[in-house]
Structure formats: C-alpha cells, structure tokens
Amino acid sequence: MFKNLFKNTPEGEIQEVNLDEAKMPQHVAIIMDGNGRWAQKRGLPRVAGHKRGMEVVKDITKASSDLGIKVLTLYAFSTENWKRSEKEVSFLMDLPVKFFNTFVPDLVENNVKVNVMGYTEYLPEKTQKAVHDAIEQTKDNTGMILNFALNYGARAEIVTGVKKIAQKVVDHELSIDEINEDTVSKSLMTESVAPYNNPDLLIRTSGEERISNFLLWQLAYSELVFTDKLWPEYQPADLVENIYEFQQRDRRFGGVKEGKNK
Length: 262
Description:
Layout: E1 5-8, E2 14-17, E3 27-31, H1 35-41, H2 46-67, E4 71-78, H3 86-109, E5 113-117, H4 125-138, E6 145-152, H5 154-170, H6 181-187, E7 201-204, E8 223-226, H7 236-247
Parallel strand pairs: 3-4, 3-7, 4-6, 5-6, 7-8
Antiparallel strand pairs: 1-2
Helix pairs in contact: 1-2, 2-3, 3-4, 5-6
Family: Belongs to the UPP synthase family.
GO cellular component, one term: cytosol
Subunit structure: Homodimer.
C-alpha cells in the first residue's frame, strides 16, 4: 500500500487515502483541457493558461513517477489545434522549448524518459530540436516514460497505420489473412511505449466528457474519468483521487468475473 497520499473531497478538504499498489494503472493518459478558460476567468490572455499548465505538467509528471506509473501520456497539441489563432499556436510551439530547457535536469534526476508521438516533422524547427534534444538527453533513463502526443490525431494515426500495413501486403511481407488486432496495434504510434500501448486510465480535465480524437483504438477498454478541474488547477491530490476512483472500478474487458453478475 502507498502511504501518506491525499485526495480532494467534494467539500474542498484534503483527505488521506491509501492506493492499492496491486491495482495501480500502468499507463495513464490525460487530456489537459481548460487552460484558456482558466485564463479568461481571471481576465488574462489564453496564453497565460498555457504557461500555468506547463507548470502543472511538471508537478503531475513527478507525482506520476513517484506513484510508480509506467507511462504518462499527455495530449499536448492536436492536429486540429492548428485552427487556433496564429499568436496562440506560436506560443504553444514555444512551450516545448521552454519546458524541456527547464525540466530536463529534473527528468534525468527522476529517471524519467521522454517519448513523443505525432507528426513532429510538421512542427517548427526549434520545436523539433527541443523534442529531439529531450529524447536524446533522457534516452538512458529506465523509469517512467513521459509520452507527449504532439501534433497528434487518432484518425490520422489510424490512416497512417493502415497505409503501413497495406504497404507490407503490397511488398509481400504480410498476407491479408495475417492482419489481426496485434498487427494494427503495432502499426500505431503507441508501439513506441510497448508493452504499455493501451492506457488503463484516461483522465480529462475541465468538465468536458469526450475524447476529442485521442487514442481512438487504444482506449477501447480504458477506464474514463472526467473531472471538473481546469488543467491549471489540477494537483497531485487530484491525480490520486482519480486513480482512487479507477481502483474502485470492476474491469472485466467484456467478460464476466466468476461470482459476479453482468
């Protein structure tokens, strides 16, 4: 059992909670939503929310590593986010540079390895360099994988994966009869965090209850937890609370456990 962990109560108080180490999610994915709304509520520009959100990423990364989570996947920038204003997109492209410049020493100290999935070749050169450098500087770390979904979209990912499989068929490296779920899974971007390809738990902040083109294949049997907290307000205690909720779920993966009703 983990000791001295705390979660928030509905009354806004802090309550001690014990998480079951045997039921810890190995892969947690988070849709970090609400940065803009957090800023607007305070009369600040949207980019102020993104800046604060970057600091929260640091706190949640450390907390996740301390909890023994194997992979933390964060939806940092979607293929649809290019539709935002030029000013906001420019700021978002600068964030990885600022984030890794200040946080890589902490990642190394905490034995955290950086991974990035998405169409990074379309990012600005400075952003690509920051990503490449962070991956290179943490490649020998053996602890938690901090996996950023950057310029990522699940439908595009699936299309890309299907093309890879089709090319193998054309090249006579694979027959149609050999295509199965494992073939598809290995063609997707989360193969880079194997064997933890599929999240056990998906968390979305800000009260929205949709998955927004995120890990459509991989979330098939994930537990989904939605919280009203805006991402800049999200704290390690909220993560503990969400994991505690996950641990109360009865995961059957489409089957029925002996002695249990459907």
